[in-house]
Every structure is written in structure tokens, then in C-alpha cells.
Design goal:
The protein is mainly alpha-helical. The protein is built from six helices and three strands. It folds into two domains: 45 residues, no CATH class; 115 residues, no CATH class. The chain has a three-stranded antiparallel beta sheet, covered by helices on one side. α2 runs parallel beside α3, α3 runs antiparallel to α4 and α3 crosses α6. The protein is elongated and about 70 Å long. The protein binds zinc ion. The site of zinc ion has 7 residues, from α2. Zinc ion (ZN) binds next to α2.
């Protein structure tokens, strides 16, 4: 890969995808030689890892597989839509939010099960509530619009689930 500082840097990632990096000037170097070496190091590091898209795609997929193992029919993670910049931002937000949503979901299911064990709710209520939670998670996962994910960035997982249920 060429190292042309004026036209930016094309990096071929470990996953095989090629990404373009415009500004790669490590800060905090008074010596130009050291600065160039640091940039070279950064480029080599980038080449050794997956591109952003692949990196952030795997994390939520692992979470969704957890849900599938619990018997939920979770749809495939949709391809995000929006501008390149929005999608890149939304990918990170989605990975983090799905993490939170899945752990919140697990917590809620656990709560239901212990309520059922204590006899405070019936088996029927347990099933109904679990159905509602399942639907909420499925609905959240299905969102493809990058803008939607960006809007949710400050939203707590509990609120996202509650909102999905009430829609
Ligand atoms: Zn990739």
C-alpha cells in the first residue's frame, strides 16, 4: 500500500476490505522522524485488524446469537442505511446499545422467572410478558436507519425496551 501523505492513506485491512484514512498525523512528536515512524506504526496496526465495519458487525452478532440460543427468533442485523459518516457512528452506537438491551432483557427475564418461582405471577403471565419483551428486542434489532441509532445514543436500554413495547 502506498504511503502518500498528501492523498491520504489506503489501508487494506485483515478482513480484506480497503479503507481510506485522511488524517493520520500522530500528535505529541517534536521530531519528524519519530512522528513518521509513529504513523507507520499506526498504519501497520490498522492493517492487522478488521475494518471498522467488520469489527463492529461481529460484536452485536455475538449478542444476537445469545438470544437465539434462548429460543428467540431474532432477525439478522440489518445493513445500516444513511450517509457513510452516519453509518460509521451508528455502527458503534448500535453495538453498545444492543449490548445494553440484551443484558436488560436477560435481567427482565430472570426477574420474571423468580416471580414465577415465588408464585407472584402465573405461568400464563410469564409467557405473555416474555412475549412482549421478545417483541421489543426484535423491533429494536430491526432498525436499519443510522439516524435512528444516533438519536438513541443517550437513551437507556430500559427506556428503549419500554418504548418499543408501547409502540
Ligand atoms: Zn472489513
Amino acid at each position: 500500500m502506498g504511503r502518500n501523505a498528501y492523498s491520504g492513506f489506503k489501508v487494506k485491512h485483515a478482513c480484506g476490505h480497503i479503507a481510506f484514512y485522511e488524517r493520520l498525523l500522530p500528535q505529541g512528536f517534536t521530531d519528524d522522524q519519530a512522528r513518521l515512524a509513529a504513523r507507520e506504526g499506526k498504519l501497520t496496526w490498522l492493517e492487522q485488524r478488521d475494518c471498522q465495519s467488520c469489527h463492529y458487525k461481529d460484536q452485536p452478532e455475538v449478542r444476537l446469537d445469545e438470544l437465539r440460543r434462548r429460543g428467540l427468533s431474532v432477525p439478522d442485523l440489518p445493513r445500516l442505511t444513511g450517509t457513510e459518516k452516519q453509518m460509521s457512528w451508528a455502527r458503534k452506537i448500535r453495538a453498545g446499545k444492543l449490548d445494553e438491551v440484551v443484558s436488560r432483557y436477560s435481567y427482565l427475564c430472570h426477574q420474571l422467572e423468580s416471580q414465577r418461582q415465588r408464585g407472584t405471577i402465573s405461568a400464563q403471565v410469564l409467557d405473555q410478558r416474555r412475549c412482549v419483551y421478545n417483541r421489543a428486542v426484535t423491533q429494536i434489532v430491526a432498525h436499519a436507519d443510522a439516524g435512528w441509532w444516533i438519536e438513541q445514543r443517550g437513551m437507556a436500554a430500559a427506556d428503549m425496551l419500554r418504548h418499543a413495547v408501547s409502540v
